[in-house]
Amino acid sequence: MAEAVRGRTDRQVVRVGIDHFKRLVARRTAYPQDSPESYYLDSWDHTAIRDLLLRPLGPGGDRRYRDAVADLPARAAVDGPWHVAADNAVLLADGVFLQRPELDPWWDLRIWVDIGFDEVLRRGIARDQRWMGSAAEAERRYRTRQPFGCLSTTGSRLVACPPARLTGVVGQLAS
After folding, report:
1. For the stretch 129-150, what's the b/e string if a residue is b when 16 or more beta carbons lie within 10 angstroms of its beta carbon?
2. Tens-digit pLDDT string for the chain (175 aa)
3. At what angle are helices 117-132 and 135-145 packed, to 10 degrees?
4. Closest by Cα among 103, 89, 97 to 6
5. Which residues contact 129 (CB under 8 A, 6 or more apart)?
6. Cα–Cα distance measured from residue 142 to residue 134, given in angstroms and rounded to the nearest whole number
């Protein structure tokens, strides 16, 4: 998506994967580690997302931002460089749970890409099997955490923050 946006504008497009803003695993203690509640409520560092990414790139921000605070398995902190975005830069942040109420005031536009569970599972296993120990472990964790949409422990998804209410653009991933 970032490449498509870049092809349509002369503005700088800053792409950031929100998975780099996870709390370190050792600090996720509010819920059982493999529970859906831990995944939804305790995994992302919303303060860092707001203060190091969204506020600096938002209206009146100083344009100095960070694109990561943790490595992808969230086992180690990342003390990477500060970046400076152009005054008219476009931030394209991708990841799950970006429509959380804590982040709601910071978005100008939300794009919901509806991706079926089979594709989510395929991508998650390919990306995470190395640090999770095996493809089977990655599949087990994704099947028990419901990693797309918003948390629902009742089997339905999109209960806590339905995308249709918050999204300016809705799309579906083509197979």
Report:
1. eeebeeeeebbebbeebbbbbb
2. 778 888 899 999 999 999 999 999 889 888 887 777 787 888 899 999 999 999 999 999 999 999 999 998 888 999 989 999 999 999 999 888 788 888 888 988 888 777 777 887 898 899 888 888 899 998 888 777 654 444 333 333 334 555 555 566 555 555 4
3. 130
4. 89
5. 135, 137, 138
6. 12
